[in-house]
Specification:
This protein is 22% helix and 38% strand. The chain is α+β, with helices and mostly antiparallel strands and 140 residues long. The chain has a single domain, classed as YjbQ-like (Jelly Rolls, Sandwich). InterPro entries: UPF0047_YjbQ-like, YjbQ-like_sf. This is Secondary thiamine-phosphate synthase enzyme. Belongs to the UPF0047 family. It holds the Pfam family YjbQ.
C-alpha cells in the first residue's frame, strides 16, 4: 500500500464557488502512482468548504452562490457571532451545510470523478484569504 500526503495553499479567491480540481492535480502528482485507492481532500478552515458538482457550466457556480446567500443571509440580528463582520457567521453556517472533507476514488492513477464533476472551493467570506488543503491519497 502507498500513502501520500501533501498540504497545499490555494491563493485568495473572491466569495463564490471556484473549481479547484486542476490546482489539486497539479499540486499532488502522487495520485498518478496509485492504481486503485482513495484521495481525501480536507479544508483546514471553518468559513470555507468543499463540494463536488457541475464542472462545465459556470452559471451553476453563480446559482450556488445565489442560493446560499438567500438561505443564509447576512446581517441577521439574531446572530451573536459578528466580531469579524456581517459575512462571518453566515460563512460558518454555509460551511456547516456543505463539506469540509471529500473522499474521491482513484482509478488507474486518476481521480474517478464523473464526466461533468469538479471539485469546488466554496469561499463564503468576502475576504477569506488564502486557504489550506490537506490532501491524502492511499491505495495500491
Amino acid at each position: 500500500m502507498k500513502i501520500y500526503q501533501q498540504q497545499i495553499r490555494l491563493h485568495e479567491r473572491r466569495r463564490g464557488f471556484h473549481l479547484i480540481t486542476a490546482d489539486i492535480l497539479q499540486a499532488f502528482p502522487q495520485i498518478n502512482e496509485i492504481k486503485t485507492g482513495v484521495c481525501q481532500v480536507f479544508i483546514q478552515h471553518t468559513s470555507a468548504s468543499l463540494s463536488i458538482n457541475e464542472n462545465a457550466d459556470p452559471t451553476v457556480r453563480h446559482d450556488f452562490e445565489m442560493f446560499f446567500n438567500k438561505a443564509v443571509p447576512e446581517n441577521d440580528p439574531d446572530y451573536l457571532h459578528d466580531d469579524e463582520g456581517s459575512d462571518d457567521m453566515p460563512a460558518h453556517l454555509k460551511a456547516a451545510l456543505l463539506d469540509t472533507s471529500l473522499m474521491i476514488p482513484i482509478r488507474n492513477g486518476r481521480l474517478a470523478l464523473g464526466m461533468w464533476q469538479g471539485i469546488y472551493l466554496c469561499e463564503h467570506r468576502n475576504y477569506g484569504g488564502a486557504r489550506n488543503l490537506m490532501l491524502t491519497a492511499w491505495g495500491e
